[in-house]
Design brief:
Blueprint (H helix, E strand, L loop, with lengths): L4 E12 L2 E7 L15 E8 L2 E8 L9 E6 L5 H9 L5 E4 L15 E7 L3 H14 L4 E8 L8 H10 L4 E7 L8 E2 L4 H11 L7 E6 L1 H13 L7 E5 L6 H4 L6 E8 L2 E8 L4 H7 L17 E6 L2 E3 L7 H5 L2 E3 L3 E3 L3 E5 L4
Parallel strand pairs: 7-8, 7-11, 8-9, 9-10, 11-12, 13-19
Antiparallel strand pairs: 1-2, 1-6, 2-5, 3-4, 3-6, 13-14, 15-17, 15-19, 16-18
Length: about 350
């Protein structure tokens, strides 16, 4: 069962034309529960229009700050983001679940980090770079940050202040797709832009790790360029906004039914579902409070293990081949392909 806690909104700060950051008041009794590592996210839950809605948002504050803050950008037809940006007020209560996620940075001395972010992808990257700057005086961080225009640039003032304060260790580069801005590049972050910085501007710098957050196309292009510039694959870390459906996997989903056994919180549940349905949705329809957040295959909240039978995932941007071999699945993207299947949420 998802472990949600009711907390109050301590501050709401306008960070861009259509984005705010939200600071939560965490009682002393919950401080340990909400300890986090830079790059992690929390899941927010609220009843909106008579329906309980959950969304995952990356933490933009640092572990050292003692604050828990997320940034939320209003998106078109986004029920949760529209509610937060337009309706949420200081003093309101909201439910939040403890930090999760595998997109992590624990700064180390004498390391050179580089980050590529687009739009709201800056949120986890901001936590990472601030933690790097504030916890060690020998580590450096270079950031390439893409947006449509200055007004769309989340944390614009804060980033500029950090650049001035840590000019020797923080290098900041903006790129805008819909505006010509002095001392900034024009266009989008792609392989050519990546080469410009890694191969030319910072050719004398050896980057120990790269952190990418944004659209899938950007991440694919940047990852390829970084690998071509001899940054090992295991040192290229990323988090997607959305994941693409694997059409080959779609073809493996057939008509038919499956008997499902679910282990959750030391309890066993059994039901029958259609194989064209995803496992998470079937759990929720059977009143099983399975963990979930984004429902888009880009977070890891709905993680579970298949201990009997088989399933296929239509999207996956998180799990490694080895983890899939072990039976791990993202239940929001997994469809059963055998007459019987056992899903264990506890053993992950």
């Amino acid at each position: 069962m998802a472990d949600f806690h009711k907390v109050h909104i301590q501050e709401i700060k306008q960070e861009a034309a259509d984005a705010v950051s939200v600071l939560f008041h965490i009682p002393e009794s919950l401080k340990a529960t909400f300890n986090f590592i830079s790059g992690q996210y929390i899941t927010l839950q609220q009843e909106i229009n008579n329906e309980v809605t959950r969304r995952a948002y990356s933490i933009c504050s640092t572990p050292e700050s003692g604050e828990l803050r997320v940034a939320i950008k209003k998106v078109e037809k986004g029920v949760f983001s529209s509610y937060v940006v337009s309706n949420l007020k200081v003093g309101d209560t909201i439910e939040i679940a403890p930090p999760e996620g595998r997109f992590l940075l624990k700064p180390e001395a004498h390391k050179n980090y580089i980050g590529f972010a687009a739009g709201s992808g800056i949120t986890p990257i901001l936590s990472m770079l601030k933690s790097t700057l504030h916890t060690d005086t020998t580590a450096t961080f270079t950031l390439v940050y893409g947006n449509k225009s200055i007004s769309d640039t989340i944390f614009f003032e804060e980033l500029n202040n950090l650049k001035e304060t840590h000019a020797d260790r923080f290098k900041l580069h903006y790129i805008y797709s819909r505006a010509a801005v002095i001392n900034s590049l024009r266009g989008r972050i792609d392989g050519n832009v990546t080469n410009y910085f890694v191969k030319n501007m910072y050719k004398e710098t050896s980057f120990d790790a790269a952190f990418l957050c944004g659209p899938e196309e950007m991440i694919n292009n940047v990852s390829k360029a970084l690998a071509n510039n001899k940054i090992p694959k295991e040192n290229i870390h990323f988090e997607l906004f959305t994941a693409t459906v694997d059409e080959d996997k779609v073809a493996q989903v057939q008509e038919g039914s499956t008997e499902v056994t679910v282990l959750l919180d030391d309890e066993t549940h059994t039901f029958t579902m259609q194989q064209t349905d995803d496992i998470l949705a079937a759990n929720l329809r059977n009143n099983i409070d399975a963990p979930y957040s984004c429902q888009g295959g880009v977070c890891s909240s709905c993680l579970a293990k298949v201990t009997e039978g088989k399933a296929v995932m239509l999207k996956n941007s998180i799990l490694t081949d080895g983890e899939i071999e072990e039976g791990l699945i993202l239940t929001c993207q997994a469809h059963p392909t055998t007459p019987k299947i056992t899903i264990d949420f506890d053993d992950v």
